[in-house]
Automatic annotation (TrEMBL):
<dbReference type="InterPro" id="IPR007487">
    <property type="entry name" value="ABC_transpt-TYRBP-like"/>
</dbReference>
<protein>
    <submittedName>
        <fullName>Sugar ABC transporter substrate-binding protein</fullName>
    </submittedName>
</protein>
<feature type="signal peptide">
    <location>
        <begin position="1"/>
        <end position="26"/>
    </location>
</feature>
<dbReference type="InterPro" id="IPR028082">
    <property type="entry name" value="Peripla_BP_I"/>
</dbReference>
<keyword id="KW-0732">Signal</keyword>
<dbReference type="Pfam" id="PF04392">
    <property type="entry name" value="ABC_sub_bind"/>
</dbReference>
Length: 343
C-alpha cells in the first residue's frame, strides 16, 4: 500500500512536468531549411545566361560588356546571381548554331545573341528559351520578330539601325566635290543588305552614287577596297561584322590613296575611320540588359516586349585619321562633335 501511495504521489509531480516539456519542445524554432516558401533568402538559384557573339570586334564587345555590367546593376551580378557562358562563333554561322544548341542542352535561363547571324542561329535552335538580341539592324527583315512593336515569339531585343542618310551627309561635309561612295559589305549578312539599300535610297536624295563590292570572306576585304581605287571619292563602312572586324585593311588602302572613310559606328572611327554619326554600343548593351532583367524577374515576356532602339546619336571624329587621309576637318564638324579622337 505504501508503495502504491508513493507511486501515486510521484505521478502527480512528474506528469505536469512532462507536459510542460512537450509543449516547450513544440514551440522551438523551426530549422533553417524550413523557412516559408516566400522568403527571398531561400531563393539562391544561380541563373545561367548564354552569350553567343558572331565575331569579336570593338562594337560587339562593347555591347556585351555593357550588357553584363548593367545586368549586374539590376541585381544579377556576374558569378554571383548569374553565371555566363560566353562564346564567339568566329564569323561562322554553323558554329553559331552549335553554340546555341549547347545553350539549349544546358537549359540556360536566357540567351543573349549579339549581331544578326548569332540571333538567327539562336532563334533557329530554340522556341522555348527567352532570346534577347542586340546589334541587329533589321529584326523584321531577318525574320527574328513579327513586328517591331509585337515580336510575337521568344525573341526580342535592341536594334542598331544607323541614321544612314546623316552618315552619308558627312561624306559631303568632308569632301564637298564627292560624287561616288564605295561600300564594302558581306553579301551573306541580312543587316548589311538592309544598310546598302538604305544607302542607295539616301544617296539618290543627296546626289551621290553608290558603288558596291560584295564579299564572302574577311580575306577579300583588302582586295575589294583596292578594286575601288580611282572609282570612288570616299568609303562608307556600314555596321557589317565581317568588314568591321577587318577594317584595318580598308583603312590601309584609304590612307595610301587619300580616300576619306566614314563609318557606321564610333569604334570604327577609333580604329581609323574619320567620322560617324551613330549609336553607342555600350549603351545599347545596357539597354538590352534592362530588358533582360524584366524577363528574368518574370515581369515581362519577349513576345510582348517591343524591339527598342537608341534615341541618342553622337558625332565622333578622328583627327589623326583625317590627317592621314589628307582631309581637313571643317570647323563646323568640330563644333558639333560629341567626341574628337586625337590618336
Amino acid at each position: 500500500m505504501r508503495k502504491q501511495k508513493y507511486w501515486h504521489v510521484v505521478q502527480k509531480i512528474l506528469c505536469p512536468l512532462l507536459l510542460l516539456s512537450v509543449a516547450a519542445c513544440g514551440q522551438q524554432s523551426a530549422p533553417a531549411d524550413s523557412q516559408p516558401a516566400n522568403d527571398p533568402a531561400q531563393d539562391t538559384k544561380q541563373l545561367k545566361v548564354g552569350i553567343v557573339q558572331i565575331v569579336e570586334h570593338p562594337a560587339l564587345d562593347a555591347a556585351r560588356e555593357g550588357f553584363i555590367a548593367k545586368l549586374g546593376q539590376n541585381g544579377y551580378e556576374k558569378d554571383k546571381q548569374v553565371v555566363y557562358d560566353i562564346k564567339s562563333a568566329q564569323g561562322n554561322m554553323d558554329q553559331a548554331v552549335q553554340i546555341a544548341q549547347k545553350f539549349q542542352a544546358d537549359n540556360v535561363d536566357l540567351i543573349l545573341a549579339i549581331a544578326t547571324p548569332a540571333a538567327q542561329a539562336a532563334a533557329q535552335v530554340t522556341k522555348d528559351i527567352p532570346i534577347l538580341f542586340t546589334a541587329v539592324t533589321d529584326p523584321v527583315a531577318a525574320s527574328l520578330v513579327q513586328t517591331m512593336e509585337n515580336p510575337g515569339g521568344n525573341v526580342t531585343g535592341t536594334t542598331d539601325m544607323n541614321p544612314v542618310e546623316e552618315q552619308l551627309k558627312l561624306v559631303q561635309e568632308l569632301k564637298a566635290d564627292a560624287k561616288t561612295v564605295g561600300i564594302i559589305y558581306n553579301s551573306g549578312e541580312v543587316n548589311s543588305k538592309v544598310q546598302v539599300d538604305a544607302a542607295k535610297a539616301a544617296a539618290e536624295k543627296l546626289g551621290l552614287t553608290i558603288r558596291e563590292a560584295a564579299i564572302t570572306s574577311p580575306t577579300e576585304v583588302k582586295q575589294a577596297a583596292e578594286s575601288m581605287v580611282g572609282k570612288v571619292d570616299a568609303f562608307y563602312i556600314p555596321t557589317d561584322n565581317m568588314v568591321v572586324s577587318s577594317i584595318s585593311a580598308v583603312i590601309g588602302v584609304a590612307e595610301s590613296q587619300k580616300i576619306p572613310v566614314v563609318a557606321g559606328e564610333e569604334n570604327s572611327v577609333k580604329s581609323g575611320a574619320i567620322a560617324t554619326y551613330g549609336i553607342d554600343y555600350s549603351k545599347l548593351g545596357e539597354q538590352t540588359a534592362d530588358m533582360a532583367a524584366k524577363i528574368l524577374k518574370g515581369e515581362a515576356q519577349p513576345a510582348s516586349m517591343p524591339v527598342e532602339k537608341q534615341a541618342e546619336m553622337k558625332l565622333v571624329l578622328n583627327k589623326k585619321a583625317a590627317e592621314k587621309m589628307g582631309v581637313p576637318l571643317p570647323q563646323s564638324l568640330l563644333d558639333r562633335a560629341a567626341e574628337v579622337v586625337e590618336q
